[in-house]
UniProtKB/TrEMBL annotation:
Residues 1-26 are annotated as: Disordered. It is found in: Membrane. It comes from the Eukaryota. It is a multi-pass membrane protein. InterPro entries: CDC50/LEM3_fam (IPR005045). PANTHER family: CDC50, ISOFORM A (PTHR10926:SF0), CELL CYCLE CONTROL PROTEIN 50 (PTHR10926). It holds the Pfam family CDC50. Belongs to the CDC50/LEM3 family. Signal peptide: none annotated. Keywords: Membrane, Transmembrane, Transmembrane helix. This is Cell division control protein 50. The chain crosses the membrane at residues 47-69, 337-361. The lineage of its organism: Eukaryota, Fungi, Dikarya, Ascomycota, Saccharomycotina.
C-alpha cells in the first residue's frame, strides 16, 4: 500500500524550509563551534608549582587560625539538670562531662552548682553556678546561652511570624499572615507577637552581674544593651496595639498571667533578647548572646552566676548551657577552620611529593600536537550525514 512505500525526507531535504530557505546555521566559527580555545596540558611540570604554592599559602593560614583560636578563653557549663541534680543547701561539684573550659592557667577548683527552692508555687527556681576564673581576662567578655537539638531552621518555624506586626502595625487576627498558624489569635483578639518563633522564646533569666564567690572577688557588671544586630534593632518597632486588641502567646502566660494591660505590653524595639531570639539559627546546635561587657577586664577570682530556670529542654530532647567566652580576630574558639586549611596543605604537599617521585623514576615524553590533523567538517558534512543515515538503516 502507499503508506509502506512512502519515503521520508533526506538529511539535506530536512534542512530546507517551505520557502526553499536552508535551516542550517550560518557557517561561522561561533555558530559552528569552531572558536579557538585554550586547553591547558596538565603535566607534572605544570602541576607541581601549583601544589607547592597551595601548600605554602594554606599552611601559615591554618597555623594562624589555630593559634588565634587558642587565645580564646571560655567556660561552658551544661545546667539542663540543675533543677533536679543540684543540692539546695550547699554548692556541689558539677559532673565533669557537663563542664568544658579553656584557660591560660590551670583551674584549681571545679565548678559547682546549687539550686534555690521557691518560697511559693508561683516563684521561680534559680540555679547558681559557681566557677573559678584562673587569670585575668582582657575585655571583651560575653555571656551566651547554648541550645542543642533545637531545629530553628524548620521551614514552617522560620516563616512563622508577621513582619508588619513586628514593625508596629496593629493588624487584626484576620489580617495576620497565615504563616503564624496555629498561634495567630484567640477569639476575636490577635496574638502579639504571633507565630511559633515568639511562642518558643528562650526565657531562662541571667542576672546582669557576676557575683563574687569569695571575699577577694568583687562583683562584675554586665549589660544586655546592643546584644542584637544593628539591622534587627531597626526591624522591630513599638506596637500601636492597645491591650484590648491582643493576647500574649500561650507560652508567655506565666509572665503575663492576667494578659496584657496598657502598661505591660512589651516594647520589642527595646527588648533586645527578643530580637536575638527572632534571628533564627541555621543549625540545631547554636549560641545566642545574652550579656556582655566590652569596657573592663574580668579579674581572676571565683564568681557566681544566677540563672532563673524557666525553659524546659526535655520537651525536644536537647540541652541548655551557660557559656562565658572571649573572642579573637577570627571570632570564637573554633579549631575546625584551621584544621581544614592544614589538611588541604598536607594533601597538596603529599601530591607534590608523589609527582616528583613519579617524574624522577618514570618520566614520560610529551607528544607533539602539531602532527594531529583533522578533516574539514564543512566540506564533508553532507557525506557524514549520508554515512550516518546508512549505518542507521
Amino acid at each position: 500500500m502507499w503508506f509502506f512505500s512512502k519515503k521520508g525526507p533526506t538529511p539535506n531535504e530536512s534542512l530546507i524550509g517551505e520557502e526553499g530557505k536552508t535551516k542550517r546555521p550560518p557557517n561561522t566559527a561561533f555558530r559552528q563551534q569552531r572558536l579557538r580555545s585554550w586547553q591547558p596540558i596538565l603535566s607534572p611540570q605544570s602541576v607541581l608549582p601549583l601544589l607547592l604554592l597551595y601548600a605554602c599559602i594554606f599552611t601559615p593560614i591554618g597555623v594562624g587560625l589555630i593559634l588565634g583560636a587558642k587565645t580564646v578563653q571560655d567556660l561552658t557549663i551544661n545546667y539542663s539538670n540543675c533543677g533536679k541534680d543540684a543540692g539546695t543547701e550547699d554548692f556541689t561539684d558539677i559532673p565533669k562531662k557537663l563542664v568544658h573550659y579553656n584557660f591560660k592557667h590551670k583551674v584549681e577548683n571545679r565548678p559547682k552548682w546549687k539550686r534555690t527552692v521557691p518560697e511559693n508555687d508561683d516563684g521561680m527556681p534559680y540555679c547558681q553556678l559557681k566557677f573559678e576564673i584562673p587569670d585575668e581576662i582582657k575585655n571583651s567578655v560575653y555571656i551566651y546561652y547554648k541550645l542543642t537539638n533545637f531545629y530553628q531552621n524548620h521551614r514552617r518555624y522560620v516563616e512563622s511570624f508577621d513582619y508588619k506586626q513586628l514593625l508596629g502595625k496593629p493588624l487584626s487576627k484576620d489580617e495576620l499572615t497565615t504563616a503564624c498558624r496555629p498561634i495567630r489569635g484567640e477569639g476575636d483578639k490577635a496574638v502579639y507577637p504571633c507565630g511559633l518563633i515568639a511562642n518558643s522564646m528562650f526565657n531562662d533569666t541571667f542576672t546582669p552581674t557576676l557575683f563574687g564567690g569569695d571575699d577577694d572577688t568583687e562583683d562584675f557588671q554586665l549589660t544586655n544593651k546592643k546584644i542584637s544586630w544593628g539591622i534587627d534593632r531597626k526591624r522591630f518597632k513599638k506596637t500601636k496595639y492597645n491591650a484590648s486588641q491582643i493576647v500574649p502567646p500561650p507560652n508567655w502566660r506565666k509572665r503575663y498571667p492576667d494578659g496584657y494591660t496598657d502598661d505591660n505590653i512589651p516594647d520589642i524595639h527595646e527588648w533586645e533578647e527578643f530580637q536575638v531570639w527572632m534571628r533564627t539559627a541555621a543549625l540545631p546546635k547554636f549560641y545566642k548572646l545574652a550579656l556582655k561587657n566590652e569596657t573592663t577586664h574580668l579579674p581572676k577570682g571565683t564568681y557566681i552566676m544566677q540563672i532563673g530556670l524557666n525553659y524546659p529542654t526535655s520537651l525536644f530532647g536537647g540541652s541548655k548551657s551557660f557559656v562565658l567566652t572571649t573572642i579573637s580576630a577570627i571570632g570564637g574558639r573554633n579549631m575546625s577552620l584551621g584544621v581544614v586549611f592544614l589538611i588541604v596543605s598536607c594533601l597538596s604537599g603529599l601530591m607534590a611529593l608523589i609527582f616528583i617521585v613519579k617524574l624522577f623514576f618514570q618520566p614520560r615524553a610529551m607528544g607533539d600536537h602539531s602532527f594531529l590533523k583533522f578533516e574539514d567538517e564543512e566540506n564533508n558534512s553532507t557525506n557524514d550525514n549520508d554515512l550516518a543515515l546508512r549505518e542507521i538503516l
